[in-house]
C-alpha cells in the first residue's frame, strides 16, 4: 500500500536512542509500525558533547529503522529534548475587542502568535500552551464565541537555548537528515502516564533519565511549570562507585540487585560480597548502600523541589508526584519522593494508544511523542458508503473553495501583529 506519510519519533538519550514510526497510509488509517532501541554516543545532559559520535549514532538509528520498516523517506522527524537549558514562563496578552464583536478562533490564533515576542532572542520556542482566557474579569477555558470589551489570555511558554538546538540540528545534518520539530521530553512523558483528572487536580511528573531529570507541573489541566536539571540515575551509580571504590558498571549492577534509596525499607541487613579496586573485600552492607543512595536521591529530588519555591506549585499537588523514566524503577525512590515533596507518589507506566499492556517507564517520552503525532495527524472519518467515499474529495474541494459566508474572513476587533 502506498505511504501517505511517515513520522519518525526519536528520544536521544545519553545511553540509548529510542525510535518510533507513525504511518498514515491513506486518509483514513494511522498505524504505529515500529519501536526500536539503539546505542547512543556523544550525547550528554541533553546536548551534543561530540559531534562526530552523535551524528554516527543518529545515522545508525535512523538507517536501522528504515531497514526494519521499509520506509525510504520520512515525512517528518520529531526529536525529544531535555537538559538544564530548558526554561518556562507564564505570560499574559491583553487585547481590546471592538463593540459587540465575537471572539473567533482566528482571533485566539493571533494572540498565540504574539507570545513569541516574549521568548529571548537566543532561545528556541518549544511549546505554547493556552491556559485560559478572561473577558471583562470572567475567566473561561476558551473565549471563542464570546463577546466583551477586554480580553486577557494566559499562556505558558517552554523554550530552550538556541545554541543547543543548533548543535543537535548540525548532528542530524551531518547524518543527512533534518529535524522538523523539537519536543520537551518532560511534556511528552507526561502525555503517556497521566490521566485528565490528574492534570485537572494538579500534579507533577518527573522523568528520571541517565544524566537529566525533566519535570512538569500541571495546574487546572494545563502545564504551569517546566524545567530540567543535569542530574539523573547515573548520579546514584557515581556516588556508589566513589563511596565503595568499585567500577561504575559494577555499581550499577549493585544498585539494581540490592539497592534501595531508603534504609527504612531494609527489613534485613546483610553484608554484600563486593571487592574494591584494590582487591580487598568491602565491608558494605545493604543498609550502608541504602544510606549512600538515599543521600544522592534526596539531593536530586530536593534540587527539583527548590525550583518550585516561590510558586503555587509547591503546595498544590493534590494528585501527587508521578515518577517515570528508566531511573524511576529504582527500589525505594517512590518513598523518597513522598518524603521530599510531602505528597503521594507513584511510578508512571506509559500506556501505548490502543493497547492495554504497560511499557517500561524508560519508553515514556517516545510513547508520549506517539500520542502527540496521533493527535496532530488524526485521520479523517472513514466514509460509510461507496457514494460517500467517491464524493468525499469533491465535497472537501467545494468546502475549501466556498467557505461558509457566516464565518467572517476578517472580523473587526482582531489584534494586529
Give an account of the 3D structure.
The chain has a domain at 87-160: Dna Ligase, domain 1. The longest helix is centred in the last third of the chain and has 22 residues, at 286-307. Strands 3-2-1-6-11 form a five-stranded mixed beta sheet. A five-stranded mixed beta sheet has the order 14-13-12-15-16, with helices on both faces. A four-stranded antiparallel beta sheet has the order 7-10-8-9. Residues 403-417 have low confidence and may be disordered. α1 (51-69) crosses α3, α6 crosses α8 (286-307) and α8 crosses α9. It has helices spanning 51-69, 105-114, 162-175, 185-193, 196-201, 233-244, 248-258, 286-307, 333-341, 364-376, 386-401; strands at residues 5-12, 16-26, 29-39, 43-44, 47-48, 76-81, 87-96, 123-135, 138-140, 150-161, 181-184, 203-208, 213-219, 222-229, 321-324, 345-347. The protein is of the alpha/beta class. It is globular, with a radius of gyration of 24 Å.
Examine the secondary-structure arrangement and name the CATH architecture of the domain at 87-160: 2-Layer Sandwich
The major beta sheet can be summarized as: 5 strands, mixed
In CATH's first tier, which class of the domain at 87-160 applies?
Alpha Beta
Distance between the termini: 44 Å
**Average predicted local confidence, pLDDT:** 85
Q: Are there runs of 5+ residues with pLDDT below 50, and where?
A: 403-417
Specify Rg, calculated over alpha carbons: 24 Å
Question: What's the number of helices?
Answer: 11
Proportion in helices: 25-40%
SSE class:
alpha/beta
- Please state the overall shape, judged from the principal axes of the Cα atoms: globular
Amino acid at each position: 500500500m502506498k505511504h501517505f506519510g511517515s513520522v519518525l519519533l526519536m528520544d536521544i538519550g545519553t545511553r540509548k536512542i529510542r525510535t518510533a514510526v507513525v504511518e498514515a497510509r491513506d486518509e483514513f488509517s494511522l498505524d504505529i509500525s515500529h519501536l526500536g532501541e539503539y546505542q547512543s554516543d556523544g550525547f550528554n545532559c541533553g546536548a551534543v558533547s561530540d559531534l562526530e559520535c552523535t551524528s554516527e549514532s543518529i545515522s545508525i538509528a535512523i538507517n536501522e529503522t528504515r531497514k526494519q520498516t521499509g520506509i525510504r523517506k520520512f515525512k517528518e522527524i520529531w526529536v525529544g529534548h531535555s537538559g538544564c537549558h530548558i526554561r518556562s514562563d507564564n505570560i499574559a496578552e491583553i487585547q481590546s475587542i471592538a463593540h459587540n464583536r465575537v471572539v473567533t478562533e482566528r482571533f485566539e490564533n493571533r494572540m498565540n502568535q504574539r507570545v513569541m515576542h516574549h521568548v529571548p532572542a537566543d532561545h528556541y520556542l518549544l511549546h505554547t500552551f493556552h491556559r485560559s482566557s478572561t473577558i471583562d474579569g470572567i475567566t473561561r477555558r476558551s473565549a471563542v464565541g464570546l463577546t466583551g470589551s477586554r480580553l486577557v489570555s494566559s499562556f505558558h511558554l517552554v523554550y530552550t537555548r538556541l545554541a543547543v538546538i543548533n548543535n543537535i540540528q548540525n548532528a542530524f545534518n551531518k547524518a543527512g537528515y533534518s529535524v522538523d520539530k523539537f519536543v520537551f521530553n518532560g511534556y511528552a512523558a507526561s502525555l503517556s502516564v497521566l490521566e485528565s483528572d490528574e492534570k485537572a487536580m494538579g500534579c507533577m511528573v518527573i522523568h528520571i533519565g541517565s544524566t537529566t531529570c525533566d519535570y512538569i507541573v500541571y495546574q487546572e489541566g494545563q502545564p504551569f511549570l517546566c524545567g530540567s536539571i543535569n542530574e539523573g540515575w547515573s548520579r546514584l551509580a557515581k556516588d556508589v562507585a566513589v563511596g565503595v571504590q568499585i567500577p561504575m558498571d559494577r555499581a550499577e549492577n549493585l544498585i539494581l540487585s540490592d539497592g534501595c534509596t531508603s534504609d527504612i525499607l531494609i527489613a534485613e541487613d546483610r553484608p554484600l560480597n563486593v571487592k574494591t579496586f584494590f582487591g580487598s573485600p568491602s565491608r558494605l552492607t545493604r543498609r550502608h548502600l541504602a544510606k549512600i543512595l538515599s543521600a544522592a536521591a534526596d539531593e536530586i529530588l530536593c534540587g527539583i523541589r527548590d525550583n518550585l519555591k516561590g510558586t503555587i506549585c509547591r503546595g498544590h499537588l493534590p494528585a501527587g508526584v508521578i515518577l517515570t523514566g528508566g531511573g524511576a524503577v529504582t527500589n525505594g525512590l517512590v518513598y523518597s519522593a513522598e518524603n521530599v515533596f510531602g505528597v503521594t507518589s507513584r511510578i508512571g507506566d506509559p500506556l501505548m494508544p490502543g493497547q492495554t499492556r504497560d511499557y517500561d517507564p524508560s519508553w515514556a517520552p517516545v510513547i508520549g511523542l506517539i500520542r502527540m503525532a496521533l493527535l496532530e495527524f488524526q485521520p479523517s472519518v472513514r466514509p460509510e458508503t461507496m457514494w460517500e467515499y467517491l464524493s468525499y474529495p469533491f465535497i472537501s474541494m467545494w468546502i475549501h473553495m466556498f467557505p461558509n459566508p457566516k464565518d467572517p474572513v476578517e472580523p473587526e476587533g482582531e489584534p494586529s501583529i
